[in-house]
Amino acid sequence: MNMLAIWWSALGAGMKVVWIITIIATIVFLIQSIMTFVGGGSSDLDSDMDINFDGTDADVPDAISGGTGMNLYTFRNLVNFCLGFGWSFIILQGKIASTAVLIIVSVLIGLALVAAVMYMFKWLWGMQQSGNINLEKSAPGCTGTVYLAIPAKRSGEGKVQITINNSVREYAAVTDGEAIPTGAAITVVEAIGPALLLVK
User: Fold this and answer.
1) Which distant-in-sequence residues (6+ apart) come within 8 Å of 89 by Cβ?
2) Which residues contact 188 (CB under 8 A, 6 or more apart)?
3) Which of 94, 126, 168, 186 is the least crowded, having the fewest Cβ atoms under 10 Å away?
């Protein structure tokens, strides 16, 4: 313990900040991974803290939408970036003399990790949604709840969780009416894409 204290006191202020961010990101990443793979799916932490710069909610795990693509600005992606940036900065510190180059390389590695995880979840999401469900036939009339708020008059996509073929599935959704808030009950009108629903 004394050696740990000596090591910590010998670090500069900048490296202490990097270590703190990296340790926190690692712990959160491990918690998210455990929750995902034991059946937690998108953790409450993701859904509560995912943000979009226009003020609307956005998802993390996943950060993946079956409709328009991927949303970059999520808590999970922030964690992934800090994880990649922090560990690469720590590992490469003694190997790259220039601090500016070290920062640039670490930022690029952090962004690469974010991209890799996003595409992994996109692939997993596609595999999950493909299955043998024919949305055009099975989805109309199904009920569920709004997971991420749906903008009015098809001005954007939200997400819904519906019970279909005796299982709960998550899909991107739009509406022709007014905006539908998170938690509201919905009914599927029709499927207008391979993973996009029109709801009311």
Assistant:
1) 18, 22, 102, 103, 106
2) 139, 140, 141, 142, 143, 144, 160, 162, 197, 198, 199
3) 94
Asked if 84 and 113 touch (Cβ cutoff 8 Å), the reply is: yes
CATH 2.40.50.140 spans which residues of the chain?
135-199
Digit-coded pLDDT (tens) for 96-148: 889 899 999 999 999 999 999 888 877 766 655 555 567 777 788 888 999 88
Q: Mean pLDDT throughout 31-37?
A: 79
DSSP state, residue 149: P
Rounded Cα distance between 41 and 181, Å, is 21
The highest-level CATH class for domain 135-199 is: mainly beta
Q: What is the phi-psi region of residue 191: left when phi exceeds 0, alpha when psi lies from -120 to 50, beta otherwise?
A: beta
Centre a 10 Å sphere on the Cβ of residue 119 and count the other Cβ atoms it contains: 12
SS3 27: helix
